[in-house]
Amino acid sequence: MVRRWERSRARAGIQALPVCPQVLAEKRNLGSRDGPPHLVVVVLLHSRAAAQDSLRLLQSQDGAAVRADEGGAGGFALLCPRLKQRWRFVTAQAGDLHAVLDLAKVADSLLFILDPVDGWDSAGEHCLSCLFAQGLPSYALAVPGGTDLPPKKRIDARKKLSKCIEKRFPEAKLFPLNTEQESSLLLRHLSSQKQRHLAFRARRVYLLARAAEFVPSQDSHLVGTLKVSGFVRGQSLNVNSLVHIVGHGDFQLSQVDAPPDPLSLNPRVVKGQKRSQDMEVQDDSGNGAVEMEEDVKVLMKADPSKQESLQSEVVPDPMEGEQTWPTEEELQEAEDSLKANRRVVKVPKGTSKYQAAWIVDDGEEGSENDDGDDDEDDDMDDLMEEAVSQEGESSEEEEAGEEESETMTVSECLRDDQYDEKMEEDEQMLERYKQERMDEMFPDEVDTPRDVPARVRFQKYRGLKSFRTSPWDPKENLPRDYARIFQFQDFSRTRKNLFKQIEKEETEGASVGWYVTLHVCNVPVSVMESFKEGKPLVLFSLLPHEQKMSVLNFLVRRHPGNSEPVRAKEELIFHCGFRRFRASPLFSQHTSADKHKLERFLRPDAALVVTVYAPITFPPASVLLFKQRSNGMHDLIATGSLLSVDPDRIVIKRLVLSGHPFKIFTKMAVVRYMFFNREDVMWFKPVELRTKWGRRGHIKEPLGTHGHMKCHFDGQLKSQDTVLLNLYKRVFPKWTYDPHVPEPVPWVRSESALPEQEVEME
């Protein structure tokens, strides 16, 4: 039929597109004698899906041999010498979402088992959302059962299921799975369909363990060498490169062996033979190891001079950056620069150099004082002082500080008593003012503390004339954790050059399709215990620099199925490409500027950038964010992709201090409740003010000693307006990276498998 189709296209003048020889060879080798077995991961999408019956039908192929996997994985291999194909089927434990995602990272095809009536339940919908967000390899849809339904109900159920599938799988074909003939058609479809490649595994070696053995070290029985056996996939394996065990961390290899292939397509296999005795023997110790009758060949051993280092952090030098005495050359260079920038200024006779430095030329004076409002300022001074005196603040302290007496007079004592009474009224008015504006506060608006001076509480903050254009040095005031990370001078160029180098160089080592045993060094015994429990053991090779820690930025969107509030710096679980880890991220706006505003919560209506400390990963790579609930379940909260590896990305936290206009004049106003002492007003005097109704201004001077201040604006204020002062501070993520992710509780597979969200409001 294919040739007839090609001839019809040729008669119509349509030329066939050239097929890449590499892609064609890869498709032919998959599942053949020269390539790895076709890895099929069986995913149950409904609690009523008949998984065991489907697997029995797949095993009952004419002339096929079945090989059971070692350990507790529960998978099996299917060898068909007549078709010259071999498959390996693996089923994840029911309800283990992380196991399904890990298996999908290395699978050649996914086999979804559906219910003949409903298709999938809510837990299956959640699983499909995660798989689509991570990246879906080739797949097939199988529907076992349904034969017990009446013919009319069977047709209606088929139509209903087809409509349901069109939304998720527009081009998918349903395969009934009730007879051996239907199972044969399904196997042919799996072997002949077009393979979909995941971007994050295109340039890496990956392997799914078929057998494993743990050899404790002499020093401790908790750490040892893990011998992992499986088929090489993706690229050729080099013993000197590092490997990452998903969910457990990065490790080095000491040796690579080449045992006999336990899934060899032997044409002399007798029909119905379940296990070949001359190929493999189960170890009596029960530790999942496989002993071959033939001698195991050592392919290669690691070379310490060429082996990649496991160093993931920089060891900080406490003396680095210490101030040293300048040399004579540096002093001469500084003096020359001062001479070059020296300017001539006319000063009165007898003025010193220090006094002359403060004298400003007429041309350098700003236009701020040329607005014609000086006369208005002079006229308003008396009115200002009268307004402040009504609140109990001394007019004598405002007029002349030099005439104050060191001894307290009786009249001053009376004045303080009157002020204390006024202060009680002022406190009541302040509380009433806070309650009235509670619903009108901005998200970043905070109240100035009364017990701590504002200049101390907000000493790490600064004012910016313009958030977009004002400069901010990315190397300024970095935290201690930044001394532990690595940074590229140009990450994009490094990634481009590295990928070109991988394409040009031919890796010496185990080729794709070889059955090998990897000796992984210094592995904790918990990895072997996890494998015995039935968890998949997935290994990925690391590209250069991917074991080093840096700052990763992900572009994500909130998942529509989750509405629980997620606060910044809250611990989340990440599936980033081939990695799985825990970290506490920051959320910030996604803009093209050099500064990005911090978001306190993960917003549902916009794409945000998530920033974490994590090992370097070269994009493209998908990312999934999970949150562990109090009952142990892991909820998908956001999906996206890796944006960049950039520690210089500036995330800015904004605070807004607010004040109330007490007395309003033409362009002047007395503002209170923003500060509560004179020193704070002087400290924040250079910062620009703005109002909620769009006015801009600045602080002229403090009035009294309790935080009142005279302010000038570009227009007259309204009594309902609020005066704001914006402060900014750069923030950094918390260093909580942990490659060990706790196992979630199993799903409650029912019609309401996902419980209602428990929203905790603070």
UniProtKB/TrEMBL annotation:
It holds the Pfam family Tsr1_G-like. Keywords: Nucleus, Ribosome biogenesis. SMART domains: AARP2CN (SM00785), DUF663 (SM01362). Its main location: nucleus. Residues 361-385, 393-406 have a biased composition (Acidic residues). The keyword Nucleus applies. One of its GO terms (biological process) is endonucleolytic cleavage of tricistronic rRNA transcript (SSU-rRNA, 5.8S rRNA, LSU-rRNA). One of its GO terms (molecular function) is U3 snoRNA binding. One of its GO terms (cellular component) is nucleolus. InterPro entries: AARP2CN (IPR012948), Bms1/Tsr1 (IPR039761), BMS1_TSR1_C (IPR007034), G_Bms1/Tsr1_dom (IPR030387). PROSITE patterns: G_BMS1. Residues 36-196 form the Bms1-type G domain. It is found in: Nucleus, Nucleolus. Required during maturation of the 40S ribosomal subunit in the nucleolus. Belongs to the TRAFAC class translation factor GTPase superfamily. Bms1-like GTPase family. TSR1 subfamily. This is Pre-rRNA-processing protein TSR1 homolog. It comes from Serinus canaria (Island canary). The gene is TSR1.
